[in-house]
Amino acid sequence: MKDDYENTYKEKRKKSHEFEKREDYLEHELLIMKFRRWRIHLPFRDFNIELEDLVPALAATIGKVVMVTAMVAAFAVQFGLSPEFVAENVRYELLIAGGIFVILFSAILNPRANLAGTHGPMIPLIPIIAAAGGHPLALGILIGVFGLILSITKGGSKLMSLTGVGVRGGLLIYLGAVGLISQISKFESWSANSNASTVSFVVIGITILIYAYLARIKKRWLAIPLCSALAGVIAYSMGVNFEFTTEPGLPHMNPFWWWGETTGWQLGWPDFGHFIAVIPFAILAVAMWSPDYLGHRVFQELNYPKKAKDVLMDVDDTMTVASIRQIVGAGLGGGNIASSWGTYMIPAAIAKRPIPGGAVLTALLCVLASVFGYPMDLAMWEPVLRVALIVGVFLPLLEAGMQMVKKENDSLSAGTCIFACAFVNPVFGWALTMLLDNLGLIGDRERAKELTLKERLIIPGAMFLVCVVSLALAGQLPGIPGIF
Hints:
The chain is built from 21 helices and no strands. The protein is mainly alpha-helical.
């Protein structure tokens, strides 16, 4: 008997000119694709690569260079490593984890698993991790192990289903608003320090106009390449200096070099004490995954046709991929901490594209950026970087959160979530308001009545307890000194 999935896509596929609107063609593509978990998928047999896939690929590459640089640089400062080490390690991550890993897992083996990106919220904790005697390899291995446990037990998808609409909306609004304000402030500070204060005003002003127009004509998926390119051109034309400094080349490929005592990280291999020191931080990193993954999946649900269930991001499989990538990447010598790749998923969802097509292009762009070096300079240039993050990540997060909060009950949950996030951080805010929402103390009380005791109290309560204890151990609760 013929497999129900076999050749389904090729048989049902139509050419774009057969549709009146491009959007209709893209939605039809989403409806006829049926991705299978942990099976071989091939381009043009199970999915196609479209022009729209280039946009999230560009956004993902820019985001990857920026976030991995920030992560590795934070480690380098703590361990007294040079800027040359940072550039070398970023190249290594782009080549191994950003290129080969992406194609293997998110394009071929499981297109429902989002690409494994960078865990941005962990960057501020790196000085604390180093001060506690942590080792990057020990941290990476434990994050991968804890993540695999959560994914195997289906904990990620369960937590997602227990997070109410109001809590989701509040979390997205907070992340979007805080990130937006932060990026604009950093851009303004950079402009002032470069003696070009008017550059940030002109660039942001034009970005607002372009973004509003793209939203009006329903072409927001073009925002990242168009606005980033304009930001670079405008800044350069206004006299801001830009130079290519990273020359073509290949990084060191030997893990023993990276984890040597006098080479690479200059830390040697971790011992038992290093693993003990990073336990609370590894738990916290994995606890942060659920709200992060939740926010990315929401964008697909908002932009895809309702019946396109077979192409939606699988939270548990994404956790599996991120965990494996974390263990492999750290073992090879990389300094990245993995999570769901937001700078890829958000623009891909807005462009109505599934994961694998853009994943292939992302992998190729990451490899090219690593080998040629010069694209890394362009992606990290302040006008390009800030505008890409504003229109590609934080504005869409803010808009998605506002779209979700439609009822009065949901607005109460959202408001409480924003308050709790501002009080401590998004992990605490999500865990607390999920518990309160499921208990029926805020939000939709009728929804709470339909939940079992396990769903209403035990699981959310346990998650809240894990988050609070991990935050306390890491010194992230206001007024409470950390143990580590």
